[in-house]
Amino acid sequence: MDYLAQTFHLLRALFPRLVEGFGVTIGVGISAMALALAGSLLLLAPRMAKSRLIRMPVESYIELMRNTPLLLQIYLIYFGLPLLGFFPSEFLCGVVGIALQHTAFLVEILRGGIESISRRQWEAASAIGMRRLATFQYVILPQAFLRVMGPLGNQLIILVKDTSLVSAIGVMELTMVGKMAIERSAVSIEIFMAIAVFYLALTTLLGVVLRLIEQRTAARL
Amino acid sequence: MLNTLIANLPYLIKGAAVTVWLSLIVLTFGTLLGTLLGLSAAVGGRPIRLVVTAYIFVLRGVPVLVVMLLGYYAFPTLDPALGATLGLRAGAYAAVAVAQIVYVAAFVAEIVRSAVLSVPAGQIAAAKSLGMRRLAILAHVVLPQATRLAIPPLLNNSLTAIKQTSYISVVGAWELTYAAREVVERTLAAFQIFLGVMAIYFLICYPLSMLARWCEKRLVVMH
Question: Complex ipTM above 0.90?
Fold first, then answer.
């Protein structure tokens, strides 16, 4: 009973700081998500271009991002930009690093979704006189969106978990707050359980929201 | 122009060797543990299924860094004598390796479980009606198909796991990424060193990612 009371007391005292760190985690997550989604939409057309010359740079970028650790990319930005005379905040470095890597994964997911729609649907649409853009907008995109939602959601959940890496460059987000609290109090398992609950709540909530969007879209089609 | 990188290359390659070793250990034991968990979740009774599902749910919802930090800080408190005999560094390696194995196993378990469950129930019923035993059905009907299905995602998962080993540098265990940071803090040559180390990771990961893509094309058969 003594142990329980003690732990409860400790966690209650720590709670405001954990919530603050949780806020930063959400901030990093949402900013990186927005950037990565925008970036992937931007790179999608060149990735699917017919010309090899246009496709190549995007393909190499994607391969580079997929085959190197995110932590190194964040370090490269964080330690590299000051050498070029830019001094962005740790927060910005972390967000951009996460967004750059996840952009690569998202482009591949989006491309997979669009390519999974049969060629015959393009042909059928053009046979009834639809233009290419209209076909894409009304025929291909809605179906591709539905197919993409699953993998896209998984990737976004990975993105949320990857926000913990910005603690490595000193952003005071949830993982960092927990780490510091442990170093100060020497209580480890209990504090990490609390952090895990926060992350679990966030990823589960995101998963549920994404599934709802998927179901809504499916119902409308 | 690349002299700093070249001068430090032996040191970095030593780091790469540690990364490769760690990856092999984590992948071997993580895949073994995960396969065991996934299979028992797919064919086992309700209590086993519940436990494994909870294991998968919790670990997949939490960043690997959190699990590793938990391993790192909780390891000595659980057994201080062990930490002392292994020395701090060895203790750190053991703690983070165990944490990564436990984490990777959750992802492997999910892949294996869904691959086994994706074999149509009709086939199992057909095998039963032919008089095959449970174990024979598993060995001759279910597993051959599930393996084909599971290999591409397992390879992709291995790729993620290898890249994840870089995160142990955050906890203070020495490997390639840690070595890179040391060199950069000494020489300030951030671009040379980090890009060079990214190239080393690329050399390790790219063959695996090619293999994964090849398997995706060759092994997955639509039902």
Answer: no
